[in-house]
Design goal:
single chain; about 280 residues; five-stranded mixed sheet; 9 helices; 9 strands; about 45% helix; globular; binds zinc ion
Length: about 280
């Protein structure tokens, strides 16, 4: 991907905020172990998180960072800005949000969350939450390298923001059980990620300060979608697959819906609730 650093208006830096409650502070190594432990037991793989409720004392610490990490902050800011620009032209009454960057754990309107949750969207405060160490684990532990794989994660979470703004999260009628509903919601977020990808793939965008894709970027996104299918993760962690416990859909489904968004660029093509497959 090609992109230009901006003014960080699309991120909120909470990396110096310590929420407590998870044995702080943990080094990066500890976080990665936490993350992998969580994924391999089949917990959230970038999820929409419901409301929690605990309140914790919050302490601010100075942010210790590296040039590499700062570049990642700029990357997240640039991609978030691009995704928001896309959606503000696709749906009426789009309301901007931010990606809250945290380390180890964070207090949101959805309660206290650890990095082990993975990136998530909190409907209660309409923000995306991300511990940047996830990107490293996405590459190293889940086998999904590349900047567009990272962008897909952000675009998926922003898909939940769109669902929140359009009412899908709260009021979409559905007759199936909670797991089946969750799969529909998550696959639609994958499709919405593709809708942004369709926009990002258009040529000549960098002239307007927008992100542009390089050859191989789309493949990185498709590979990432396949890497985090419920069937693949369950196979890895448990050695068996239990479809009734799926929450996000199979690798094939995630790839298929992401592709559908990429190919059409049309959110109306993302009606996973109407689709009977
Ligand atoms: Zn999700």
């Amino acid at each position: 991907m090609r992109w230009t650093p901006g003014n960080r208006g699309n991120v909120q830096d909470a990396r110096g905020r310590s929420g407590g409650g998870y044995g702080m502070p943990l080094g990066i190594g500890g976080v990665v172990i936490l993350l992998v432990g969580s994924w391999l037991t089949g917990v959230n793989l970038f999820d929409v998180v419901g409301s929690g409720g605990s309140t914790e004392v919050v302490a601010e610490r100075p942010v210790e960072s590296t040039p590499e990490e700062e570049r990642l902050v700029d990357f997240v800011d640039a991609v978030m800005g691009d995704i928001q620009g896309t959606w503000s032209s696709k749906i009426g009454n789009y309301q901007p949000t931010k990606a809250v960057l945290f380390r180890d754990s964070i207090q949101s309107a959805c309660g206290m969350s650890s990095a082990a949750t993975g990136p998530f969207y909190c409907p209660g405060d309409r923000q995306v939450y991300l511990d940047l160490s996830f990107f490293n684990a996405l590459h190293q532990k889940l086998g999904a390298p590349g900047d567009f794989a990272q962008a897909y994660v952000l675009a998926h979470e922003m898909g939940h923001h769109v669902q929140n703004l359009t009412g899908t999260l709260e009021s979409q009628p559905f007759s199936g059980n909670a797991n089946e509903r969750s799969v529909r919601v998550e696959l639609q977020a994958d499709c919405y990620a593709g809708v942004w990808g369709n926009e990002a793939a258009k040529p000549g965008r960098d002239a307007a300060g927008k992100v542009e894709l390089d050859p191989g970027d789309v493949e990185e996104g498709l590979n990432a979608a396949a890497a985090i299918g419920d069937d693949r993760l369950q196979g890895k962690s448990q050695g068996r697959i239990a479809p009734e416990s799926f929450t996000h859909g199979t690798s094939a489904q995630r790839v298929s819906w992401f592709k559908r968004g990429m190919e059409t660029g049309d959110p109306r093509a993302c009606d996973t609730f109407a689709d009977s497959r």
